[in-house]
Design a protein that fits this description.
mainly alpha; 17 helices
Length: 416
Amino acid sequence: MNIEPENPTLRLPSPVARLAMPMMGVGAVLLLVGVLLGAIFSSVEMRFAMGAYLTAYTYCLTISLGALFFVIIQHLCRAGWSVTVRRVAELLMSVLPVMAVLFLPILATLWIGEGTLYRWDSEEWVAAHHPDWLNPESPQRSKGIYLSDWFFTLRAILYLSIWAGLALYFFRLSRRQDDTAEIRLTERMQAFSGPAVILFSLSVTFAAFDWVMSLEPIWFSTMFGVYIFAGGMLSAICAITVGVYLVQAAGSLRQQVTVEHYHDLAKLIFGFVTFWTYIAFSQYLLIWYGNIPEETFWFGDRQEHGWAIVSLILVFFHWLLPFLALLNRNLRRRPAYVCGWAAYVLLMHFVDIYWLVMPSVTESPTGGVMGVVTTVLCSLGMVGLFIGAVLRAGDGAPLIPVRDPRLQESLAFHNI
């Protein structure tokens, strides 16, 4: 089997690679139009538009972060089976610097628009609802400091710097190994994977608190960071599966990625569907059982004004349906079948993120006709930018780590 870097079957086909810039361009236009459609209406519509932007952003970000964790954990466990699919994960995580730039409009809402997205950003709202946050002698003053423009911005810069730094570190060393075949590069990535897991876990948890949970400033859940992580990891594995399948359909990686790899990816999808459900149910059960008004209202909002339908969609179509569909071992060994369900779960992940964000900015699940248009444009635009950036990163790079010391183990991998 030819695994030389110049092997054309290990590269993105030229027609696919050429889509990178058009997709980024069209994506940027759609995203801008979607936000502007909200901006030309009232402040309520602008809040909806920025909520739609945050939803689309969080959706793509969680996929990229899940891919980053996938890469880190493969090095931490010194896994051999995943080498031939790891480069796709590396490409998905490599766009985290781009995602850092795309966070700027969210920061702009803090410094330009008082309370446009986050209500705690408005001094009038804080003074009317939580005056203790402004009182230097109140124990609640610490929350007012935590939820402040400057501290929020500093933390966001820290999170994004950690993620971009980790992504560039692992991606560049992996790409360098394609040329040099140095085993010490693998050893360096393995040695740093432990600290990387700690940095990743803390930063993702607090970013989930800051960027999504603080949409409702008085609501809190210590499990929320794990919930975001579970959805991100699940969606990343699904994106890896879909990416590998589409690359094979285009003529690349036909021999390097086999049914055995799809089988393991399907098992991971099945496992993380179950894990996501476990975390979601545990969070709901503890809040329901505690019956504290400061906690229960969050779920109450998601059971009114049509949001109950979305909640039920998550129960039956994010968990039960894919859970049953991936139970059978023989079905998990059919690449097209696994890819189809992976794409389906990616759609359900978007519904999940929408369910997390949008009830805090609008009572209606759709926001009316203009709300639907804004959501669709922002989502398509962000996804287009994301995919275009991934294709750009993959142009010219081998689609597998051709000099990884465990490559032969992955090529010969077989499920017992």
